Amino acid sequence: MLKINNTIGPHELIPKIQRLFELSAQKIKSIDDSWDTNRGTPVFTVQGQYTVRGWTEWTRGFQYGAALLQFDVTDDSSFLDIGMPGTLKYMAGHVSHIGVHDHGFNNVSTFGNILRLIREGRIPDKDNGVAEACELALKVSGAVQASRWTTLPEHLGFIHSFNGPHSLFIDTMRSLRSLALAHSLGHLLMGEQDEKISLLARLLQHSETTARFTVYWGQGRDRFDVRGRTSHESIFNARNGSFRCPSTQQGYSPFTTWTRGLSWAILGFAEQLEYLDSLAETEFGCDPGIFSGDRQKWLDRFVDSARATADHYFECAATDGIPHWDNGAPGLAAMPDWERRPSDPSNAYEPVDSSAAAIAAQGMLRLGNYLVHNGKNNAGKRYIQAGLTIAETLFQEPYLSIDPHHQGLILHSVYHRPNGWDYIPPGKKIPCGESSMWGDYHALELAVLIFRLAKDLPYYDFFTSILNT
Predict the structure, then answer these.
(1) Run of H or E residues at 168
(2) Contact in structure between 431 and 422 (CB atoms under 8 Å)
(3) pLDDT digits over 85-102, tens only?
(4) Which has the closest alpha carbon to 386: 307, 314, 318?
(5) Which residues, 6 or more positions from 424, have their beta carbon under 8 angstroms from its beta carbon?
(6) Is the dihedral angle over the CA atoms 219, 251, 447, 59 positive or is it negative?
(7) What distance in Å separates the CA atoms of residue 334 and residue 160, rounded to the nearest whole number?
(8) N or C: less crowded end of the chain, CB within 10 Å?
């Protein structure tokens, strides 16, 4: 169980963040210098070198987005020279990609970060050409993502995963930010016979479907119903919209908690909570009937979902905040006291997943900040301190990669344990010592958020600077 450090604040983490970005600088440049774009997209490291793994091309946005975040904190224009041309040259195909649920990962991390930096006055754009291109890309991306739609009864529906129209992934909660930006930039999805489809409505419908079927609430849904637990995938009958069963692609079983999926839920609900809180009451008139357009009911639903999943994460993590890849992984039975001590990435039974921790920590901070700003100081501070505690663990060894020859930034990330894709070093029985594009990127996002809080800079989110111009 996570043991929260209540004495640490954002300022105390500045030295670790500065070291993180010093190490990140050489790693981003190493990847850019050595990567052959004809190979595809870097996904995770094998023996310290980034390599590909074909499933979907969902990590290229993290490659160029990381360079943009590096520029954000350091003002080193050499990283802007990696992130901006890379985005404009290679990311267009991801904007129009109709086959994935990953638009919020790829396109908001690239086009969104560029537009945010322009709006903040950090990047000059004298003729407004780049800003207009990024705005158009974000509008199209949100509409394309929303078009990947399965309609359900009771005014529900969801953006289906790359598995097909029957499949809802928990990951997509983080991808909803593509719909949010497109909506607030004034865009719609145009359907048959010029039907105007609200992107905000689809964002809300998808979120409620996820909360209802993919998040557990401890209400006896099945024998494994524990509040805050998530399944990786929910399966529906695509013909009549009925829910069939939980499932998983990357977890141990449908009835255990794949911890990176849990982290996607924490961050997705918390991030969208911040976004929805910025909208006027009148915008919720798009509500197709679930909560009758009631803004407060929607905010309460997102708070409940974020808190339930965050609270369950506390139970899944070791005392330092790092979880194993799945809380039901069979090898944990041989580690009966794992939850009462710090994580051990070199254990002989089950790998930890540092990328889940990086994602969850950001979600904890956003949830905590929302609660504090809305008068719930004690509850909010608990989540803020939890996020800072996890960040402190990640931003130092053994999770911070200090080897200049290792291209990864955050070590001990796991991609797909059931498929056996992750590298196991000689003499070891489990994957360890490697990094992932999403783990490195989300560690940098976490660092940017904490850095800006410590320096009293504009709050870092995906929408405020873009929309408030």
Answers:
(1) strand 167-169
(2) yes
(3) 999 999 999 999 999 999
(4) 314
(5) 430, 431, 432
(6) negative
(7) 37
(8) C
Residue 2 has pLDDT above 90, yes or no: yes
Q: How many residues does the chain have?
A: 469
User: Who contacts 440 (Cβ-Cβ below 8 Å, separation ≥6)?
Assistant: 24, 27, 62, 66, 408, 409, 410
Please write the tens of the pLDDT for every residue from 338-390. 999 999 999 999 999 999 999 999 999 999 999 999 999 999 999 999 999 99
Q: Which parts of 184-279 are beta strand (E)? A: 189-190, 196-197, 233-236, 243-247
Pick the closest to residue 209 from 264, 125, 153, 251 (CA basis).
153
Average pLDDT across the chain, whole number = 96
Rounded Cα–Cα distance for residues 195 and 457 (Å): 42
Q: How buried is residue 345: exposed, middle or buried, by Cβ count under 10 Å (0-12/13-18/19+)?
A: buried
Q: Do residues 13 and 391 touch, judged by C-beta distance below 8 A?
A: yes
Q: Coil, helix or strand for 70? A: helix
The CATH class for the domain spanning 10-467 reads: mainly alpha
- Residue whose C-alpha is closest to residue 434's, from 387, 401, 392, 468: 401
Q: Which residues contact 124 (CB under 8 A, 6 or more apart)?
A: none
Cα separation, 188 vs 199, whole angstroms: 6
Helix-strand-coil split of the chain, %, nearest 5:
50, 10, 40
Neighbours of 193 (CB within 10 A): 5
Q: Quote the CA–CA distance of 161 and 159 in Å, as a whole number.
A: 7
How is residue 226 written in tokens?
């524990």
Token look-up 């041989």 returns: 334
> Based on C-alpha coordinates, what's the Rg of the chain?
21
Look up the pTM and report it.
0.98
Which pair of tokens denotes residue 204? 């809300």
